[in-house]
Design brief:
SnoaL-like; 8 helices; 11 strands; Nuclear Transport Factor 2, Chain: A; alpha+beta; NTF2-like_dom_sf; 38% strand; 2 domains; SnoaL-like domain
Length: 270
């Protein structure tokens, strides 16, 4: 199978997710996952593992709503797809939330078919809640309806697990991540080293370990775009003179302990 055919198959598998969501096809959506599939949505919350848990996730967060995916860019690397997008979620009361997001799909083959092994949804729960509460009566009504759905489908433990999504690296973590990338973009190796922890993992692209100087050389001219803090991770839409994709940084305090570039050739560059 050619590399291009493989990439096309992976993208086709991923694209079946918004297709199933659009027509509220619960079975088709859940069937996209491997038997031991894992959904972490948002990253930092308690994961949903296995078919039954993923069905309950669907019933709580997808089924009652109308969801539209606005995809800006996809990166396919190995057996994974990283999607840069915005999600419009219209809840039962009519309020629509617009959520910037990075979706990471780690795919695996099961019985000769591509399935989603892991789904990591990077988005900011506090931002979504602020939108909901700022939407007036319809937003408040949606929040009131969501609470019993959450408790009924997920139980108290699941509701508390979802609330873990509020714990993020926050503004300081974002500044550390974007500061590192901006330093790299202007060729400042010392600035990069000042933010990296002593044993930090740097892969650019993911799977390719590089030293600090080589990393800076590869990303000279990098531009920082959409930035999301979820759990202990910061994800950043990035562009270099030749590549485009998403940088995934794991942050501990104000230091970056891992940096992975999910980037590929930018075909819009001529």
């Amino acid at each position: 199978m050619s590399a291009n055919a493989s990439a096309a198959e992976l993208l086709a598998t991923v694209e079946r997710s918004p297709q199933a969501v659009a027509v509220h096809d619960r079975a088709a959506w859940v069937d996209l996952f491997a038997p031991d599939g894992r959904v972490e949505d948002p990253v930092g919350s308690r994961p949903h593992i296995g078919r039954a848990a993923i069905e309950r996730f669907y019933d709580t967060f997808i089924g009652p709503n109308d969801i539209v995916f606005h995809v800006d860019h996809d990166v396919v690397l190995g057996a994974g797809v990283y999607r840069d997008l915005t999600l419009d979620t219209t809840m039962s009361t009519g309020v629509t939330l617009r959520v910037p997001m990075h979706l990471r799909y780690d795919l695996t083959q099961v019985g000769g078919e591509w399935k989603i092994g892991r789904l990591y949804a990077h988005w900011e729960l506090p931002v979504m809640v602020a939108q909901l509460l700022g939407a007036g009566g319809r937003g408040l009504g949606a929040a009131v309806k969501l609470a019993p759905q959450l408790l009924g489908n997920q139980g108290v433990g699941g509701a508390l697990g979802f609330a873990r999504g509020f714990r993020r690296v926050g503004a300081a973590g974002k500044r550390a991540a974007t500061g590192l990338l901006e330093a790299a973009g202007r060729g400042d190796v010392a600035g990069v080293r000042a933010v990296l922890s002593p044993r930090a993992v740097v892969e650019w692209p993911v799977g390719s370990d590089v030293g600090h100087a080589e990393f800076v050389k590869r990303v000279r001219g990098l531009e920082v775009g959409k930035t999301i803090a979820a759990g202990r991770f910061v994800t950043v839409s990035v562009r270099t003179p030749t590549e485009r994709g998403i940088a995934e940084l794991e942050v501990d305090g104000r230091r970056v302990v891992a940096l992975r570039g999910f980037v590929a050739e930018d075909r819009t560059v001529h």
